[in-house]
Amino acid sequence: MKLRITAADPADHEELRALLLDAAEQVVGPGCRILEPKLRWDGHPILLADAGLHPVLISFDVTQGQAALLNGLKNVDQLSSTLAWVNQVYDALQQQQRPPKLVVVSREAPPGATAVLSACPHLALFRYRVLKVNGETGLWLEPIAAENATPAAAQSPALKPAASKPYVVPAAPHEDGTLPELSDEESAYFQQL
């Protein structure tokens, strides 16, 4: 039997949603449950419960990783603030009060992914590729680690960090309230500004 593998693109947001729902165990882990396949929040994320009954929000976008990340961060904040209500609606969570996990799926790593991954322990990022194997469409998901994510400064010259200027500790005033004279080095520094 020959394998014919070709790359494909999802036709739209809903096709990618269907592929993610089919691959839920690959994204969240075995034993997960789909609670809501399409929340009415920005980006229409997917809400699941993992095997440990933690709420997991999957935010995704067909083309824009930045939109998927920003919508996901906003939606997970909204989910955190409504966790009591979410626990009442979804019995599968069994009144867990654990912070929700966020999974962001995009074609490429969103700008600033390195900083966000290092600051958010409950965040997982995935790159996706849609493949057709012998005519069947499937989803290839590749985890993005903090060290593999492309920093925002490398993607856009406009976002490069500004050169840091040294902070000068102000001199303490003399007993009579006057400030001491500037040294030649200090004078030269302030003339450069």
How is the topology of this model organized?
Elements: E1 5-8, H1 13-22, H2 24-28, E2 33-36, E3 46-49, E4 55-60, H3 65-81, H4 83-89, E5 101-106, H5 113-119, E6 123-133, E7 136-144, H6 152-155, H7 184-192
Parallel strand pairs: 4-5, 5-6
Antiparallel strand pairs: 1-6, 2-3, 3-4, 6-7
Quick rundown:
By secondary structure, the protein is α/β, with parallel strands linked by helices. It has one domain. It is built from 7 helices and 7 strands; from the N terminus they run E-H-H-E-E-E-H-H-E-H-E-E-H-H.
Question: Strand content of the residues, in percent?
Answer: 15-25%
The rough form would be described as: flat
Number of strands: 7
Share of helical residues: 25-40%
- Largest sheet data: 7 strands, mixed
Total helical elements: 7
Q: Write down the secondary-structure element order.
A: EHHEEEHHEHEEHH
Low confidence ranges: 148-172
Q: Give the N-terminus to C-terminus distance in angstroms.
A: 72 Å
**Class inferred from helices and paired strands:** alpha/beta
How many discrete structural domains? Answer: 1
State Rg. 24 Å
Average residue-wise pLDDT: 78
General description of the model:
It is a single chain. This protein is an alpha/beta fold and 193 residues long. It has one domain (5-159). The protein is 31% helix and 23% strand. The chain is built from seven helices and seven strands, in the order βααβββααβαββαα. It has helices at 13-22, 24-28, 65-81, 83-89, 113-119, 152-155, 184-192, and strands at 5-8, 33-36, 46-49, 55-60, 101-106, 123-133, 136-144. Strand 5, helix 5 (113-119) and strand 6 (123-133) form a beta-alpha-beta unit. Mean pLDDT is 78; it is low at 148-172.
